Amino acid sequence: MNDLIGRNYESDSYQCDLETGFTLIEVLICTFLIAIIASTLIESFSRQIAQQQLNEVIHAFIQDAQLARQLSRQLNVKVSLQPANERDPQNWSNGWAIIQPTDTSMRGIMLKTYPLNQPHLHAQVQIATHLLKDSQQFTDMSAPKKARHISFLGGEPALLHNGGFVANRIIWQHKSYPELMRHVILGPGGRWRICDPGKDSQKCL
Asked: Is the pLDDT of residue 10 over 60?
């Protein structure tokens, strides 16, 4: 009788161990699935943030170019949008500034700046220089040192140093997601256009 009770006890203990083991496996599987879902959501959220950062920069760029044109009309003077860093005047990736040129200052009067190292941008948006020609990025081939700028006078469409109308482009790209990029194109009539090469590469030509 005691032997029978002992065997039943051992059987019950073994069954409990099996049940406990299966429960642990289930917990591990659930944990693994939760980790996969969480990583997917985090990646999706990070990509969404990157898209927002890119969109903010390109719209701010166009808005400030339009503001520069408006100020040139209001002040009846030449107003330029140009790279913000005076030590690196060819690099838009540092941000940009709206400048009113003067005879007394080489830099001119700074009316507004838009740095790309703002806390919410983390300097993640940059110029895709490897996809651009030297004549692009709003490079004025007729200006001294081939300066990069978008200049307006009296509210007219952007002009080059030699008086020609500007028809140019710039390509913004996200550092963490290089496949995220936008072509920002200015036509000779002063009309802006944004093109996503990931959706329609033909329109970006």
From this structure: no
Q: Which residue has the higher pLDDT, 27 or 84?
A: 84
Determine how β-strand 109-115 pairs with β-strand 125-127: unpaired
∠ CA(80), CA(156), CA(148), 5° rounding?
Answer: 30
Q: In this structure, which amino acid lies at residue 66?
A: Q
Q: Which residues contact 141 (CB under 8 A, 6 or more apart)?
A: 135, 160
Q: Is the pTM above the cut of 0.90?
A: no
pLDDT score of 184: 96
Q: What's the chain look like in SS3? A: CHHHHHHHHHHHHHHHHHHHHHHHHHHHHHHHHHHHHHHHHHHHHHHHHHHHHHHHHHHHHHHHHHHHHHHHHHHCCEEEEEECCCCCCCCHHHEEEEEECCCCCCCCEEEEEEECCCCCCCCCEEECHHHCCCCCCCECCCCHHHCECEEEECCCCCECCCCCECCEEEEEEECCCCCCEEEEEECCCCCEEEECCCCCCHHHC
CB atoms within 10 A of CB 195: 19
Alpha-carbon dihedral angle through residues 53, 59, 64, 65, given to the nearest 10 degrees = 130
Residue 136 to residues 111, 170, 183: CA-CA distances in angstroms? 25, 7, 11
Q: Judge contact between 66 and 146, C-beta under 8 A.
A: no
